Each structure stands twice: as C-alpha cells, then as structure tokens.
Amino acid sequence: MTTRIIDPSAGGSGTKIQLARRPMDLRGKVVGFIDNTKEQADVIAEAMAEGLRERYGVAKVIIRRKPYFSKPAPTELLDEIAREADVAIAAVGG
Predict the structure, then answer these.
(1) What strands lie across the sheet with 87-90, from one edge to the other?
(2) Which of 26, 93, 34 is closest to 60 using CA atoms?
(3) Quick one: which of 66, 6, 75, 8 has its CA closest to 41?
(4) Is the pTM higher than 0.90?
C-alpha cells in the first residue's frame, strides 16, 4: 500500500517524503496536538485527548495553539512538540 501525502506548503513540487515511524501502541506515550485555531479546534483536541487517555492509556496530552490557521506553525512550536511528544496530531479544527 502506498501512502501519498500532499503538503500545500511544498508548492506542488511533488516531493516525496518518508513517513515518520509509528509506535506499536500509545500506552504510556505523550501525544501532542497542534490546534490550528479554527472553530472548535480546542474542543475537538480536548475530546480526543480524553478518549486517547481512557481508551489507549496515553500518559499525557499536550495541546499547543498556532498563531493563525492559514500560516504554518512556527518552528519554535514544532520544536517544542517534537521535544515533548512521542506522536503529534496537527490541524484538528473545522
């Protein structure tokens, strides 16, 4: 199975990237969310965090909000998530 990721910030270059390794399970892991500032993103992230803790044994969830939905997340925010989280989820608002 081939996974195709389209990055709108890549300018349609068709550049292929390797997928990040995924953990076998989430028990005891730290999950990071990047709230994209869209409507209800904070509510969705909190609900998902609760479900991940209850259903999958996630140890901790960190949620960080990027400054503006149409701009890429600042490098500092991405670096923070990368340092603190085992897995990250981005753009959760609608």
Answers:
(1) 60-65, 30-35, 87-90
(2) 26
(3) 66
(4) no
Instruction: Tell me the one-letter amino acid at 21.
Output: R
> Each residue of 65-91: b (16+ CB within 10 Å) or e?
bbeeeeeebeeebbebbeeebebbbee
Tens-place pLDDT, residues 24-62: 999 999 999 999 898 888 898 899 999 999 999 999 999
* Mean pLDDT computed over 49-78: 93
Helix (H, G, I), strand (E, B) or coil at 49: helix
What is the number of residues in the chain?
Answer: 94
